[in-house]
Amino acid sequence: MSAQDTVLVVGAGPAGLSAAATIASMGKKAVIVEKEDVLGGAPIISGYAKLVPSGEWAKDAIGRMVSRVEGDGNVSIHKSTKVTQVAGEAGNFTATLSNGDKLDAGAIVLGTGFTHFDSINKPEWGFGTYEDVLTTTQMEQMVGTGQIRCPSDGRVPERVAILLCVGSRDRQIGREWCSKICCTVSTNLAMEIKEISPSTDVFIYYMDIRTFGLYEDKFYWKSQEEYKTKFVKARIAEVTKSPDGRLLVKGEDTLVKRPIVIPMDLVVHAIGMDPNALNPEIAKTFGIGLEKHGFIDRAEQYTNSQGTTRKGIYVCGSATGPETIDDSIAQGQAAGSRAVADLYGQQKVAS
Amino acid sequence: MAIHEKTLIDPDRILQHDHLVVDGVDVSGSWNTMITPRTLTDYEEHFEEIIQSYSGGENVHRCWQCGSCTNSCTMYAQNVDFNPRYWIYLIRLGLKAELMKDKDIIWQCVSCNKCTNICPKDVRPEGVMKATAHWLEDNGLTPKTLSTHFDEEFTHQCIEFGRIEDTEVMVGFFKRSGQPLVQAWIVEFGKRLTKRLPLGQLAKMGMNVVFRPKTKSWGKTGEVLAEYVKAQKEAAHHG
Q1: Domain count of chain A?
Q2: Which of A49, A259, B139, B165 could bond to A140 as cystine, CB 3.0-4.6 Å?
């Protein structure tokens, strides 16, 4: 396996799996290096329920992407492995893996993804204090079980509050970006909750609703009009517990200009997408730059669309910022194609 | 004296007592004023469905609070308290007590339908105003107008007797609307009538009051009519 016909793909989430499949389909070798012991990335590891916008279960949809590369002779896979060092230059990289192996590759594609925001960093919203405060990923897992229950005592919740922008759009904690997907995920989650538990009313506490593109009517409108999700314009200040065991969400209803203290049974944090916690290490290993929020920085975008700040290394998916699964997959194809073009030495980049 | 900024507080939240004892301490005098909290402590989830059950209110759940209705509203231009966007929000969350504060102006909607034409979500705010007014009326939350009292007496007589009796309609109307039976204009009317003395007519009116004639073969018509009116009203309210 020579450097000239091999691309190293780091990370096996939707973006990396897509890149690897693209490279293989063009007759080149893709070597996937994945730090976890399973393939599929966040949708599989965090146990997402039904995906937006297909409505397909994550394990089926992403499972297909996994089996596509597993069954491909042009793709080799290293699980529970990290890249520890990268030497050489575009067209002729040598990567050292954590198992000691060395690997020659003409180009590198990073699909290193993101880290879910840890709600512990917003203690006023009760996560880690009250059992009935969950994150969207935990709620997705609950949806996967087919039952909606309060973890504290197993009762069916009369009311669920979903708090948007947890770990997003918050200068207080250094998250100045919109995580892009949480609005749509939350409107979808509200529908899933209502489907499983028709007696449960879901309230979404928002500052803005950003269900962009076709998500507008397929998710936001549908959730509000057909599934009776209530949208309340309030950024919650605090989640506490009332003497009867229910949770209380406190805040200001900005449309009524009044303080609110409303009883809820379950509170769900719509957690945002942080830069991968390992990004400083990744930046050092691959010799690439990070942008101001800590995501992987991009090259000149119009002629080197999936490029990083280092020639020959490409990036796709949520490693560059909050991203949808669909767009991550498209970017994986784009990055895979750029990398293969590099192998032919014919890539033209504006300097 | 204790609160200098009383103008900033809703009058109905200010409690004032000449003599006030809190926790055994007499705080009468300068400290006799208390303010009830502004906090909203719950929603009435099913209130939205009640308004939706009235004709015109069906689409209220679609609202996303853009404010186009209020922005285009003829009445809002006259009175900034006339705010359909705000009332729709209160209806959706069931913040009934807040809605009640504006119950005496909701009926002022002139049905120009500018809101309905501009609404991006097809909420039909004009219909919501109408539905809300009907709900207020049905629940006795707004006083009946004089014309409603008159209509009710008129309808009652039609259904009961198949015809109306002028004097009875007037007496019934005065009773229903709490007006005195003897009014200055009636006295004047009586005086002038006496001058001309149309005895035959007076006698006939007098006889009619005493004997209350029914329309011939009225039979069960009244019952059928009442049933029909009830059905029509229900159909109008519940689509």
Answers
A1: 2
A2: A49
**Each residue's pLDDT tens digit, A55-102:** 999 999 999 999 999 999 999 999 999 999 999 999 999 999 999 999
Tell me if A328 sits within 8 A of A105, measured CB to CB: no
Q: Is B38 on the interface with A (CB under 8 A)?
A: yes
Residue A350 belongs to a domain: no
Query: A262: domain range?
Result: 119-273
Whether residue A66 is found in the same domain as residue A186: no
Question: Cβ–Cβ of B43/A262 closer than 8 Å?
Answer: yes
Distances (CA, A) of B227 to A193, B54, B135, B223: 44, 20, 21, 6
Peptide bond just before B37 cis, omega within 30 deg: no
Domains and CATH numbers, chain B: 6-35 (no CATH), 47-138 (1.10.1060.10), 146-238 (no CATH)
Among partner residues B61, B64, B65, which is closest to A228 by beta-carbon distance?
Answer: B61
Residue A5: the pLDDT is: 92
Residue (of B107, B48, B114) closest to B82 by Cα position: B107
Task: Categorise residue B22: left if φ over 0, alpha if ψ from -120 to 50, beta otherwise.
Answer: beta
Is A232 found in the same domain as A211?
yes
Residues with Cβ within 8 Å of residue A203, at least 6 apart in sequence:
A159, A160, A161, A162, A229, A230, A231, A232, A262, A264
Does B89 lie at the interface with A, CB-CB under 8 angstroms?
yes
B45: which chain A residues are within 8 Å (Cβ-Cβ)?
Answer: 201, 230
Name the pLDDT band for B15 (thresholds 50, 70, 90): confident
Q: How far apart are CA A301 and CA A305, in angstroms?
A: 4
Rounded distance, CA A115 to CA A45, Å? 12
Are A191 and A305 contained in the same domain?
A: no
Is A300 found in the same domain as A182?
Answer: no
Nearest CA of chain A to the CA of B13: how many Å?
13
Residue A242 banded pLDDT, cuts 50, 70, 90: very high
CA distance A248 to chain B (A): 9
| Residues of chain A neighbouring B38 (CB-CB closer than 8 A) | 258-259
Q: How far is A272 from chain B (nearest CA, A)?
A: 23
* Dihedral angle computed from the Cα positions of residues A54, A56, A60 and A64, in that order, rounded to the nearest 10 degrees: -10
**Taking CB atoms and an 8 Å cutoff, what residues of chain B touch A237?**
none
Last residue of a domain, one of A273, A303, A322: A273
Q: Mean of the pLDDT values across residues A268-286?
A: 98
First CA to last CA across chain B, in angstroms? Answer: 55
Interface touch B86/A256, C-beta < 8 Å? yes
Torsion of CA A73, A75, A80, A86, to 10 degrees: 140
Which chain B residue has the Cα nearest residue A209?
B64
Contact B64 A232 (CB under 8 A): no
Position with higher pLDDT, B9 vs A182: A182
Boundary-marking domain end, from A250, A273, A296: A273
CA B10 to chain A, closest CA, distance in angstroms equals: 12
